[in-house]
Amino acid sequence: MAVNWLRNLASRRSVPVFPVLGVQGDKALRHLTLSPDIELVDSPRHASVLLVAGEIPADRFEPLRRVHDQLPSPFTTLWFRCEPWPHLESVIRVDDLDVLPAALVTAYRELMKGRRESSPRILPDKPPNPWEGEGDFGQGGEGMMGGVPYGRPMAMNMEDDIRDGLTLDSLTFRLGPFFFAFPPGMAAEITLQGDLVQTWKTQLVAYPQSLDPVFFTARERPVPIAELELARARHHLHRLYRGLHLAGLESASLSALRLAQNLSTTSTLDGLHRYLSRSGFFRLAAIKGGVLGPEQARRIGGPAARAAGLDEDLRSDDAGYRRLGFSPVSQAGGDTGARWRQVLAEIDQSLQLARQAERDDMTTSEVDRIETPRGPWLEKRPEDASALLDEILPGQEWGDALATIASLDVAAVAEASLDTQTASEPRITNTLDSEGGRT
Amino acid sequence: MALTTLFVILISSLGAGILMQWLPMRHQPRPAWSQRAPFLGGGTPDSHAWSRYHIRYYPMTLLLIAFEMEMMFMYPWAVVFVEKGMKAMMEMGMFLAILSVGIVYAWREGVFKWQ
Q: Which end of chain A is more exposed for a tag (fewer CB within 10 A), N or C?
């Protein structure tokens, strides 16, 4: 009786969902963030529903199995635009973004009321390394730190410290590809010493991000500058949303996302800018690291390069933009804070350009030299720049490292935008204005 | 009597607490091994996370204990000093000498440098 009452009570709360992002699953993530009934959580431990959003490449199946099993019982899974594994029984697949929140709520309510069975665990229920039963504490060796408890060695100070000479135990682990603070799909092997990143090796690069279709159209024929600039601003706002979420400024991140959703030439950034200054975002210690040198900045290109003082922007070569009096904005610092200031400045500039271009009805003139929000697109699309992380992250503290990753748009640009790839599926662009790309 | 009442209240509240936790959990199996693995976004660890790391407030703690103990001991000592005179003075000198080793160590560690 009491349990039934508790179950009813539990089923009425917002649905705790852990999203596992597949290729182009970020769009579903943004849609759910703004759904009032859904609470997206950053760890499977807090979730009751596992959402697999987007196609998961085969090399990420093993991590997905591990994450799937880490949800506390009872839990259920829902696959969005992804074929569920055949050995899983009674799994829901949803393809329409509009019905996704309702499907998640229904699945959760049924689960809580006992009308749906909890998903079975996929991995075998046995210790990853069996108990050795040797040593004073069963650690399988001599002394307190000598053994390998559960067959897994203790962390040891094997490497010299790179900060202040105080050698600490180094901890090596692989993080990702379903870690919320990484770009979707990215995985890395990391060695930490205390809170200091000692080595960083990117093992799986982030999924290529889809840009707004207008950037692909702009490669074929002149397009209205207003449309192009709004798409650019939206892309940056989506990135800002992820950065602010990481910084713990939840309401600011949501207002960035809402602004991106309702973006028009009359939108302004003033409110968000004021909020960020007041909330102390620009005074955070974590955004003072991640300085890019000129050579590194050139390799990633785009806003990150301009934040490091490089004045390179292909829009300067475009006659349409020149008539609007365009000149690239740039920052001097090249650190994480400078990159976020640059992103805000570019959103502001894009909105201004869009307003002017709409009034004067301007179009682009160049088709083979496009400045995408990710970087310049000359002969080739902007490529993956994860190799940069391996260079700049060692030596940073963990918080600074995550802030640096969030501020760098490392994912490559996908071959075609989402709309052209899934033309057979129903169009869903009215729920969120457009693809935007990786957030 | 009052003690017995208190004892009964303690036992019954503890019993109720344990019962409330045990009742819903009695048919629940232990979490599976795969559920108990550390969450690394799908990744795996190489070693246990039981590693020695530097608590950065440690010099402050050291300093607090060094000065705090000094002061704590000095209050009762001040009372005894009137009676015992020079003997108490020497005892306190020895105590301070030992304690100041900690302060010298903290100095060497750079505690007094403002960072």
A: N
Which of A173, A204, A235 marks a domain boundary?
A204
Locate A170 and state its tokens: 């180094």
The band of A432, judged by pLDDT with boundaries at 50, 70 and 90, is: very low
Handedness of CA A394, A397, A398, A401 (dihedral sign): negative
Closest CB to B33 among A125, A173, A194: A125
Residue type, A81: R
Whether residue A228 is found in the same domain as residue A347: yes
The pLDDT value given to residue A424 = 40
| Minimal Cβ distance to A168: which of B39, B41, B53 | B53
pLDDT at residue A191 tops 50: yes
Output the pLDDT for position A175: 95
Q: How many residues does chain A have?
A: 439
Give me the phi and psi of A53, to 5 degrees please: -105, 110
Contact A70/B at CB under 8 A: yes
pLDDT value for B16: 96
Query: What is the distance between the alpha carbons of residues A207 and A438, in angstroms, rounded to a whole number?
Result: 9
What is the interface pTM, i.e. ipTM, of the complex?
0.80
Q: How far apart are the C-alpha atoms of B75 and A178, rounded to whole Å?
A: 59
Answer yes or no: do A323 and A370 share one domain: yes
Q: Is the pLDDT of residue A435 over 50?
A: no
From A97-101, A402-406, B21-25, the region with the lowest mean pLDDT: B21-25
What integer is the mean pLDDT of A120-144?
Answer: 70
As a whole number, the mean pLDDT across chain B is 86
Of all residues in chain A, the one with the smallest CA distance to B52 is A169
Asked, for residue A305, whether it belongs to a domain, the answer is yes
CB-CB neighbors (< 8 A) of A170 in chain B: 51
**Probe site for chain A from B21, B30, B50, B53 (most A CB atoms < 10 A):** B53
Interface test with A, best of B23, B27, B28, B40 (most A CBs within 10 A): B40
Quote the number of domains for chain A: 3
Stated pTM of the model? 0.83
**Domain boundary residue, one of A43, A78, A112:** A112
Q: Does residue A133 lie within any of the structural domains?
A: no
Backbone dihedral angles phi then psi of residue B45, each to the nearest 5 degrees: -90, 155
Given the DSSP bridges, would you call strands A49-53 and A76-80 parallel, antiparallel or unpaired? parallel
Q: What is the CATH number of the domain that holds A226?
A: 1.10.645.10
Domain containing A398 equals 213-421
